[in-house]
């Protein structure tokens, strides 16, 4: 057997050697006859012919190693005869550079595969308490099904790398925003990266949201493990707000959200009278939507003068049209001045009503919001009960009633003019120091005045303690409602931020009806009340080992997918959740739910 192999190989070698000698001698004859021709071209044709011959023999018979070696030497000789050794060395360098890049690329791919597999193992630690993992039907994605070529599944989104170990708040925020279908549709409709040059933060943000939404639809298992890097977005955000995201501490997710939409809004905003559908449909007087900014501003000054210090509880019904017009104008002015799809999506408007017990005058003030902040107490509540406290009437001890203050001033001026003696006395007395309105629950009284002067001067002390009834209503609803549950408070004595772990019961599959909290319901205009229902899309949880770890806590996100399934995102790790209603009743959610995203139902 060995002798036969040697004979066949020797024959092949001899045949290849004869073929080369024939071709080489033919080439020499041609070169000798064509003295004036370019010898380099002839030698090049010889190399090409040898290459073709090697390919032909390799395809039909065997690999002609002898011819391959002769071709290599012949090629080097041809290049040297025409270009010299410098060109040969340059060519070799180029070849080695290409090989180096290829090896580097392969090494990176192999390293990524090892890092992904190791990250999945390390992330099996108890970010989710073990007692919940099986009892509440949390199950990892069944990747065995994904290996079937004919099976295509809507997978959980790719995980996001936790840079520095402190970017979990950004990761949870991005996963939540990527779950908002209306928000993403608005971005696609209003932002055209190919036509306009935007701030780099816009393109970085849109790229990440697109990755999170698009990369999870695949039939190839390898794409599911692709982790997303947020370093570019972090650099852009920190260039605007320095130290917004640092390796030293975890940013509060609500503050981070507000900063992000402010940055994006500043990059995209432009004064425009083209309103979103959600804005227009909440305006009672549709003619106002056709007015320019200047005309709206002029009308605002007129209507504010009509309702300022002129509405009392007795004539509230007769002033209803002015109140509605005030709400409509402030709503439109807000969207003209901050004309961006970002704030149009998240912006709503509150209406503050303050009624003085002394004079019964009602003062209104409109205030836009992107986050609806709700206070919680120490007793377990449902989310609906927490929202109901927003419109609860509060009694405030204050002297801030402008109508009473103006009436008192007029009375004092009248007395001063008609009493010369009193006027002389007041000229020698130091100004009365009145207290200012306090933000906290404790109201400081003004500096006491001596009894002799008090008896002679009808000072402001007579009306210093006014009780004012205050109530907040929702005058305009956003497309996406963001709710912050105030779990953190600052303790002045311990100089620490404390976390309140009051259980808040949320029903994820139940729509949230906010119609009873609309200001038209408060005015008794049931025929004008707008029906607004919301469904939960994402909930961000703040996890910490003790109640004082706000900055060192950890954020995870529970989000709804397009096919109405639920997943939990913990940085690089994605877990599918079955029986979502049961999961939301666990202390893991009820005691840690912090930032909620609700999308309007049509």
UniProtKB/TrEMBL annotation:
It holds the Pfam family UCH. Keywords: Hydrolase, Membrane, Protease, Thiol protease, Transmembrane, Transmembrane helix, Ubl conjugation pathway. The keyword Ion transport does not apply. Gene3D superfamilies: Cysteine proteinases. GO terms for cellular component: cytosol; nucleus. InterPro entries: Papain-like_cys_pep_sf, Peptidase_C19, Peptidase_C19_UCH, USP. Its EC number is 3.4.19.12. The keyword Hydrolase applies. It catalyses: Thiol-dependent hydrolysis of ester, thioester, amide, peptide and isopeptide bonds formed by the C-terminal Gly of ubiquitin (a 76-residue protein attached to proteins as an intracellular targeting signal). CDD domains: Peptidase_C19. It is an enzyme of class 3 (hydrolase). GO terms for molecular function: cysteine-type deubiquitinase activity. Residues 158-601 form the USP domain. The chain crosses the membrane at residues 6-23, 43-59. GO terms for biological process: protein deubiquitination; proteolysis. Belongs to the peptidase C19 family. This is ubiquitinyl hydrolase 1. It comes from Rotaria socialis. The lineage of its organism: Eukaryota, Metazoa, Spiralia, Gnathifera, Rotifera.
